[in-house]
Amino acid sequence: MNFLNVNYESHDSILSSYDQIAEKFAKDVIIEINEARYRLIDFEFYSYAENFEDPHTYKNPLQLIPYKFYLHGSGIDITFDDGKNHGGILLRSTCI
Q: In this structure, which of 9, 28, 57, 93 has its CB flanked by the most CB atoms within 10 Å?
C-alpha cells in the first residue's frame, strides 16, 4: 500500500495527496478478510501535522506506523504517516 504516501510540505499538498489516495481507494482497493472481499465506499481522512492540525485526529502512536489497522472509539482506521505526523483513514462503509 505504498500509495498511502502524504506530502506534508503544505496544507494544499496534503489535500492533493488525500485526493490521489481517495481515487485509488475508490477504484482499486479491495480488502480481504477471511475470504470475504470488501470494497471501500465511504471513508474519511484524519491527519495531524505542522501544516494540518486536525483536532479530530487521536494522535495515537499507532498512527505513526503506516499501513496498519488502528481500532479506536470511532471505528477502524488504516494508518499512514511519514514517521512524525499522525494519519489515518477512517473506514466508514464497505460493500461486498
A: 57
- Written as one string, the DSSP assignment of 71-94 is EETTEEEEE--SSSSEEEEEEEEE
DSSP state string for the chain = -GGG----SSHHHHHHHHHHHHHHHHHH-EEEETTEEEEEEEEEEEEEETTEE-TT----GGGGSTT-EEEETTEEEEE--SSSSEEEEEEEEEE-
pTM for this one? Answer: 0.83
pLDDT digits (tens, 9 = 90+) for 31-72: 888 999 988 889 999 999 988 999 989 999 988 888 889 898
